[in-house]
Design goal:
The complex is a heterodimer of chains A (249) and B (271). With 249 residues, chain A is α/β, with parallel strands linked by helices. Chain A contains eight helices and nine strands. In chain A, strand 8 and strand 9 form a beta hairpin. The chains are: A alpha/beta (249), B mainly alpha (271). At the A-B interface, helix 1 and helix 3 of A face helix 1, helix 5 and helix 13 of B.
């Protein structure tokens, strides 16, 4: 194993529960008069330690609300950790959602430039790859309509097509494979295989155990904000399904 | 040296790209559904100017004795407009971009800068309209008009500082917009925009002129349009009196940057 690109040491994250957070000046003033209420803290991640090596394809699985997406957002620098350390070496691009920054009132073309900018591409960069983006999305000729007039499938294809242009050392992917028709999913899988062949490091959050078995080198199972298990894709996928099955019964 | 420039370039390339994309898409969105499009940015100050001219110059005759009073008014209104628009639009800007802030990590100040940039664009167009009127009315302009450059820089710095504060505070305190709306109204009348300062007793005008907005507007009118107006330098007998409003602006700017940087780490989870 070569040097780690991501190092997470004893990471914890807690949120103040929204309904107890003081959001108006009135409630602040009232709380000065009243005895102080204790603030309820929701611990989402609790002592996560983790390393990801260059070129590794790491899967993160776990039930809804187990803390997977929060972990991804902390890796992406979107949330600050409450405790612990996160070190990321290299250019990191997050895909928390497809079509981030898309605006329904702008045209398909304008949205390509906008979401390209969010990935760090200048106007000139996008212009030079524009034809490739459009042909990959299979949408020639209809790029000057407003985005809201496209079907949701077409919107996803544009978004994914822009996303595939991202050049990064580390990609964070949250469940984007769950969208689109079968043909489109095939295309996503092909793209992932390509990434796997290259030396891009991928951290991949998903509920799809088929995808886990197909791509991941190593998988961690998160439960109640802690790493409950870590291992090869088949072991962890079985364990996860077993856990869900036990719950269902 | 070149490695220093290179590190600056690397650090600000991404914010600059996002800023540009945000400003261009904002402009496109703002004008795409209107028939006249960009012309509206020019038509608005023209229309405001006509109203001011009729009300203040023809009916109320407030500014008699002040040469070119209509243009004098318009300059004040346009400068005040920059402050009002920048601050009220910035106030909710972080919260309204919440869905973006929770998906990607980029410097949060870009959001506030993008608001300021589109306000600056319409400010520049408004200034062009004023220049047009000044040519038509044959307002004599001297070299002292170059003082407008530092004056406008002070105005922009002040507006940006307040914008950074408001946008970061609004994430926590959601009734700030109502408070700010009322405050802006009060501040509008506390600033000598519609009335000549000579109408105000001197002990009050000495206080009013300590506000950066009042100082900047009066100074800009003085250097560009007419010396028949009261500036902080005249009232206090020395130009060094400007140190107070300029000092307020600089202190506010530093505090705003520190505060915004500290708070912005938590925008994604609180917005």
């Amino acid at each position: 194993m070569s040097e780690p690109l991501i190092e997470v040491t004893d990471l914890s994250k807690s949120f103040l529960l929204p309904h107890l957070r003081q959001t108006t000046i009135k409630s602040q003033v009232l709380n000065v008069l009243r005895p102080r209420r204790t603030v309820e803290v929701q611990q989402v991640l609790d002592g996560i330690t983790l390393q990801v090596a260059r070129g590794e394809f790491l899967g993160i699985v776990g039930r809804n609300g187990s803390g997977k997406s929060t972990l991804l957002k902390i890796l992406a620098g979107i949330y600050p950790p409450t405790r612990g350390k996160v070190a990321v070496h290299g250019k990191l691009v997050p895909f928390i959602e497809l079509g981030v920054g898309f605006h329904p009132e702008l045209t398909g073309r304008e949205n390509v430039y906008l979401s390209g900018a969010l990935l760090g591409f200048s106007k000139g960069d996008v212009r030079s790859m524009y034809d490739n983006i459009v042909s990959f999305a299979e949408l020639d000729g209809s790029m000057d309509q407003k985005l809201k007039n496209y079907s949701s499938g077409m919107q996803v294809r544009i978004a994914f097509s822009v996303a595939t242009r991202a050049r990064a050392d580390i990609l964070l992917v949250d469940e984007v494979l769950a969208v689109g028709d079968a043909a489109f999913q095939r295309k996503c899988f092909d793209h992932f295989h390509e990434l796997k062949r290259g030396d891009t490091t991928v951290v991949f959050v998903t509920h799809d155990m088929k995808a886990v078995r197909e791509f991941c080198d190593r998988v961690i199972l998160i439960e109640k904000g802690q790493i409950a298990a870590e291992g090869g894709p088949d072991d962890i996928a079985d364990r996860y399904l077993e856990m869900l099955g036990a719950k269902a019964r | 040296m070149s490695s220093f420039l290179e590190s600056i370039y690397r650090r600000y390339r991404y914010p600059a790209i996002i800023l540009r994309a945000m400003v261009t898409s904002d402009l496109k969105l703002r004008y795409q559904a209107s028939a006249l499009g960009y012309l509206w940015t020019l038509a608005r100050p023209l229309a405001i100017f006509s109203i001011l001219y009729v009300v203040f110059v023809k009916f109320l005759r407030i500014g008699e004795g002040t040469p070119f009073f209509a243009i004098y008014l318009l300059l004040g209104i346009v400068m005040w407009g920059l402050f009002t628009e920048a601050t009220t639009q910035s106030l909710s800007s972080i919260v309204s971009r919440a869905s973006l802030l929770t998906k990607i990590n980029f410097p949060r100040y870009v959001v506030v800068l993008s608001v300021a940039a589109s306000v600056l664009i319409s400010f520049t167009l408004n200034l062009a309209v004023i220049a047009l009127f000044m040519i038509v009315a044959r307002v004599p302009v001297g070299w002292e008009a170059f003082w407008l450059v530092p004056l406008f820089l002070e105005l922009i710095a002040f507006a940006l500082a307040v914008s950074l504060f408001l946008s970061a505070l609004f994430v926590r305190f959601r009734d700030l917009n109502y408070i700010w709306e009322v405050f802006i109204q009060a501040a509008f009348y506390a600033t000598p925009i519609l009335y000549p300062l000579t109408l105000v007793p001197e002990r009050y005008s000495r206080v009013l002129l300590l506000s950066p907005m009042a100082q900047v507007i009066q100074d800009a009118r003085y250097v560009l349009i007419t010396d028949q107006t009261q500036t902080i330098a005249q009232l206090y007998g020395t130009g060094w009196a400007r140190a107070i409003p300029v000092g307020i602006t600089m202190a506010l700017a530093v505090a705003a940057v520190v505060f915004f940087r500290r708070r912005s780490r938590f925008f994604a989870e609180e917005a």
